[in-house]
Fold this protein.
Amino acid sequence: MVITLNGYNEMNIFEEGYKEIFNHSPIAKLILSVATPDFTILDANNTYLQATNTKKEELIGKPVFTVFPKNTLDPESKNIEQTLLSFEQVIQTRQPHTMEKYRYDIPVPGEDQFIEKYWITVNTPIFDAKGDIQFIIHAPRDVTAHHYLEKREKAGIESLKLQRKQLYATFMQAPVGIGIFKGPDLTVTMINHALCNIYGKSIKEMLGNPVFDVLPFVKGQGFEELVDNVRVTGETFEGIGVELPLIRNGILEKVYVDFVFEPFYEENNTITGVIVVATEVTAKVEAMHKLEEAEERARLAADAVDLGVYDLNIVNGNLVTSDRFAHIFGLEKPATSHEYNAALHPDDVEVRKKAQEDAIENGTMNYEARIIWPDQSIRWIKVEGKVLYDKEGNPARILGTVLDTTSQKFDKEQQRKLVTLVDNSVDLMSIFDLEGNNTYMNTAGIELLGLPSMAENQTIHLSDLHSPEYFEFVQNEVLPAVMREGSWSGRLMVRNYTTGENLPVFNNFIRIEESVTLKPIGIGVVMRDLRLELTAKQALADSESLLRNITTAAPTALWMSNKKGEITYINQTWVDWSGNSFEDNLLYGWMSIILPEDLTQVVDGFYKATSNKIQYEVEFRINHADGTQHWCIARGQPQFDLDGWLSGYIGSCTDITEHKALQNQKDNFIGIASHELKTPVTSLKGYAQVLERILKKKGHETEADMMRKMDAQLNRLTSLIGDLLDVTKINAGKLQFNNQVFELQPMVSELMQDLQRSTEKHLLVENFKPTGKTYADKERIEQVIINFLTNAIKYSPNPSKIIVHIEQRNNEIIVCVEDFGIGISSEDSMKVFEQFYRVSGAMQHTFPGLGLGLYISAEIIRRVGGRIWVESKQKEGSCFYFSLPVYQ
């Protein structure tokens, strides 16, 4: 039958049925004459008319470039030239030609306006019986939405790149050492300068190498086990003042660090490595060691000279003493203040009472008295002490010593021991006469002040140790107070005698009196160097200031809370989001901007995290200060005190509004596209099956076989569309489950028999052990098993067997599909269950697919309470596992 298209009798085009298919095709199409230069429009289908806002009577019989002239809103566009070039390519090459994305605007019906549109067009030649091109099918596809989505995605990617660059700069410039070590061998993937400085290595030496290979002296010290435990269990480990043997500048040093090992989580919440945050505290630890040594020397010295130690609470009269104190009083163990007072000689009770009254008045306890031992023997003791005051300045305690001076009261040996104690002190100790001349100074003082030898020391005057302005204060304020009150304590600046440098110190001036007359005979000075302490305090202040500045400038909201969920700190970003003041956001004020319908899950999630002492993560919406609703994701890391008790959380809150919008756009697009594809695919499948039967009846076996293969490919396409719809349902939380109790083994056996018929190269082998029943959606579990088996067949190109194992372990049924195919690298095996993930590289196009099957399988198993995982080795094969709980 010959059909003339609007006056043009050029060829046999369609039978009536195919003309209907053309007019109702979902793909826009024009039929053009090949006569140049007009390329007259012969026909247009309904989809084309709708896409271009035109009518048939406006198009049929007219040259294509008369109806569609040059783009008026885009004068620089070359759409006419591109189209002509495409037509010429079709005529010359006799092959279809695709015009890549170009702009051509469509008029708004009834208005003098245009809609900006972008297209991808395929021009296809149609041949007559002689093989000549009879006409051209012009099929444009509207890709405007995709064009704008591309632009938005590109802008988002650029923004993410900028953020990543800024975060990297912050990471590299951080004042604390930070590094990321990944994989079982703990390869250094990121490290900043501060951590490299601690290790004594360059970034180049560290990056890409296992950390313990670069630091050989650290290996074998137990750190490998600590890091592995963090990587495997996800539990944070914190070390304080830990010693590290490191080679720095070619010298093996003992380095002390405070550090934290935290798990490194990937986006799929799997742990692939460890984050190390470290600060060198060598100077601080060494200073503490020196202080401890000094305190230990003082204790040993006190024991050496038989000093007893006491702590008297002036307010309630409680007395705490050392064992030696009790022994001096002739007792076997420490006793009460009443028992000690009862041991005093009756004639010396008033001496002790007056000495305590004087001590409360002038700050110093000093007296000698007699005591009576239980055997009635009399002993002499010398008691000294210093009064400590509370915050209001009231005397609170007296700390001091007691010495048995019965036989050594004026013993020179006792004096020598005391001098030894002073000489070995890390603090300066010196004695000046009343004219200010130095009569004695210990070794620590000589070194601190850069003084000459001991012999020359006695020519030093007190004024030599201070700059004029500081000596004026000592002369006019300190010395008179010492003479008047017996002592003076406070911070001063002293001058190094050799260099002239002013040094900060804490000074104790003590009036020295003649033992009988109590007449002042000199001034004792105890001086402690404050440089190390002030440096440490300044470093801490600088670090806190830097951290405060970083958190203020961060684009992410940062927060701290106690274990009750009360916010104790929030940075400026959250303040800007909320539109409320810093104070209004503290405690529970931060909840005021969270949408009421999201608040319950935010609070419940926090209490669940605190109960289990785990990381906190939740998504919610807020009423932003700009008047719109924003999506946020909050994450918090639990913090613990030194005893291991949960003290609160430190975390961040990120605005994911754009991410949510893009995710919804993508899901909507996939859902709509998948749904729209089902109808034409179903129609094509029906036509293919009808044609196959017709061709078989006519004896055209070759053509019928081609239609059968076409039907098989449509089955593949139907499966892919089903996967896309499942993904859309998963993301929308609408994937339906119809759970029931059933046995796995008969179902798996039946599926294996069906699939065995589809492959002649592979042998499907059962290795089943007795198991119980499970409770799940049977059809969904079938979907998982079919996916495992078809993957095993697809990725085992060489003939081999595929073994299915089923067994019960404790309260789980384990299913394993084992193949001996190409296998998966360790890097890829961590990602195979991700959405749209496909193995990259040369094998990507060898095995087609969208990368959805394993993602859908993982979601199904997760939602019925099971587990899913893979064990694989490249070129040796893979074992894909899932487990289901045994039905009780």
Summary: The first strand starts at residue 30 and ends at 33. The CA atoms of residues 143 and 714 lie 25 Å apart. The two ends are 71 Å apart (CA to CA). Residues 657-697 form the longest helix (41 residues).
